[in-house]
Amino acid sequence: MVKTQIQLPDHLFREAKRVASEYEMSFAEVVRRSLERTIPGYPPKSSAPWHPPEPLDLGPILAPVEEWRLLANEQPPENTTPSRRRRSKSASRQ
Q1: One-character DSSP codes across 7-51
Q2: Does some domain include residue 56?
Q3: Is 75 inside a domain boundary?
Q4: What is the pTM assigned to this prediction?
Q5: Which one of 1, 15, 31, 61 has the fewest beta carbons within 10 angstroms of its own beta carbon?
Q6: Which residues contact 29 (CB under 8 A, 6 or more apart)?
Q7: Which region holds residue 12: left if phi is over 0, alpha if psi is between -120 and 50, else beta?
Q8: Domain with 18 in it
């Protein structure tokens, strides 16, 4: 086992001492257990460069091009929408 020194903010030190006291363990044990839980979240970085996976062949697109934006839940650009005016209720009653 290696003996070391660390610097902690006061609030973090107080909380770690509280945990040690409440759970009847040493301060060192609290730090060891914390590191054992934290370190697996940081796996070693790979030295090989990352490349995206090869795309899958999903077959032909079955939806017509005109419906792609609708299917992607995108709003069409403002200047390219056909001018469809909604008839007001009063105009539709005439």
Answers
A1: ---HHHHHHHHHHHHHTT--HHHHHHHHHHHHGGGSPPPPSSPP-
A2: no
A3: no
A4: 0.49
A5: 1
A6: 20
A7: alpha
A8: 10-41
